Write a sequence for this structure.
């Protein structure tokens, strides 16, 4: 695996050891693996506090886990503080259970027995939906369900971009991206540690993903504003040592984004 990408950290909360082993085996076969696991909601909260995952698989029924929380209550607690997507695992399909889970706005459901195909589909869909929320932010579940922080939160993946590389989604921190260059139907994503090539075009990328530090400056380039070194009369910008042209269509947006002070010689 390239050093500039990271495996998805998946946290599993499942009170039956056999089911934990089965899900872990499925994840390893799919190329993901399990980052951490727990049998109870209380233990899960403590472990997640130490290192939040990128995605959580939560069994709804946790009666064998020696805790008082069920998976839905755990999800409610996580939604108040964390941004990662949540997938529910359940053996129940009754209306009452569905209504309780719906209020949490999960990113997916898995019904036992879990198949590798179903698990893969749920993970990919959850990551895609979570990334799409950057473009169309969704509010938290109804405020009467639990207390919110004073400002409230929307649960977004604000700092990570998930890219499918060799059939597995990998995490690329947005903070590490210097600039993106389009080349026909390919994108070259230049990061601090290397280059990633993905099969898509720039228009499709911008439709799927937006971030306040990423700024489009031409038909072929997106730059990370945190890596800007200098401008040259609004025609070019130097980003991480690379001279990048600024298209006429995009110059107005660039001028609005930054403050330029003219000096006398």
């Amino acid at each position: 695996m390239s050093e500039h990408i990271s495996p998805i950290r998946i946290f599993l909360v499942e009170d039956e050891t056999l089911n934990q082993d089965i899900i872990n085996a499925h994840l390893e076969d799919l190329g993901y693996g399990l980052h951490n696991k727990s049998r109870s909601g209380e233990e899960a909260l403590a472990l997640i506090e130490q290192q939040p995952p990128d995605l959580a698989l939560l069994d709804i029924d946790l009666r064998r886990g020696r805790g008082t929380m069920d998976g839905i209550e755990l999800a409610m607690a996580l939604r108040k503080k964390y941004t990662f997507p949540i997938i529910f695992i359940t053996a129940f399909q009754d209306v009452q259970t569905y209504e309780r889970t719906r209020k949490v706005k999960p990113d997916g459901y898995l019904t036992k027995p879990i198949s590798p195909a179903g698990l893969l589909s749920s993970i990919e869909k959850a990551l895609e939906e979570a990334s799409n929320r950057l473009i169309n932010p969704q509010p938290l579940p109804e405020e009467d369900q639990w207390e919110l922080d004073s400002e409230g939160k929307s649960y977004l993946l604000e700092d990570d971009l998930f890219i499918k590389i060799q059939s597995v989604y990998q995490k690329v921190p947005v903070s590490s991206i210097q600039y993106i260059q389009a080349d026909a139907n390919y994108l070259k994503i230049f990061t601090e540690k290397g280059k990633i090539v993905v099969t898509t075009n720039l228009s499709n990328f911008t439709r799927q993903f937006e971030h306040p530090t990423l700024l489009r400056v031409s038909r072929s380039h997106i730059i990370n504003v945190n890596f800007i070194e200098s401008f040259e009369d609004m025609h070019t910008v130097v980003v991480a040592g690379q001279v990048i042209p600024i298209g006429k269509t995009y110059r107005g947006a660039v001028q609005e984004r930054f403050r330029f002070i003219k000096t006398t010689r």
Observations:
- The helical segments are 17-30, 41-50, 71-79, 95-102, 116-132, 202-208, 248-257.
- Confidence is low (pLDDT under 50) at residues 135-158.
